[in-house]
Amino acid sequence: MPLELGPFPGSADERLVDIVPIATLKDAPTFQAGSITFRVLATPSRGSHEITTWRAELAPNASSGVHSLDHEQLMVVSDGAVTLIANGTALTGGPGDVLILPASTDLELRNDEDTPSSATVISPVGFAATAGGQTFSPPWSL
Prior knowledge:
- The structure is a single chain.
- The chain is built from no helices and twelve strands.
- With 142 residues, the protein is an all-beta fold.
- It has one domain (34-141): Jelly Rolls (Sandwich).
- The protein has a six-stranded antiparallel sheet with strand order 1-2-3-10-5-8, with no helix packed on it. Strands 4-11-12 form a three-stranded antiparallel sheet, with no helix packed on it. Strands 7-6-9 form a three-stranded antiparallel sheet, with no helix packed on it.
- Strand 1 (30-33) and strand 2 (36-40) form a beta hairpin.
């Protein structure tokens, strides 16, 4: 049986966006950390309550540096290739692949190619990262 939506409340010309928030990439706040650009998608500051997502754009030969997370994250590769190094093992994902970043593990994300790569990262709201002995909530996740 097909799922039926509606009727929606309000006038006939009420748009779905008035009921379901949309956070567009073109309006996304941008943060720069080294050679990685973060474009904020769904975060508490943009209307989400439980899940946060952002687009990570890795310049050619970029590295995130070693860091760890207090919650698991998913990274869906969009363009190019992203290499995850965890526990001394390197795994590379291409477009459509999902890298599963485990919690409480030293991680490094790299783009070892001569062309840019990008991925959408999915994480629970309120997670923390640790890098260089500092624990923090990344500003692109808030």
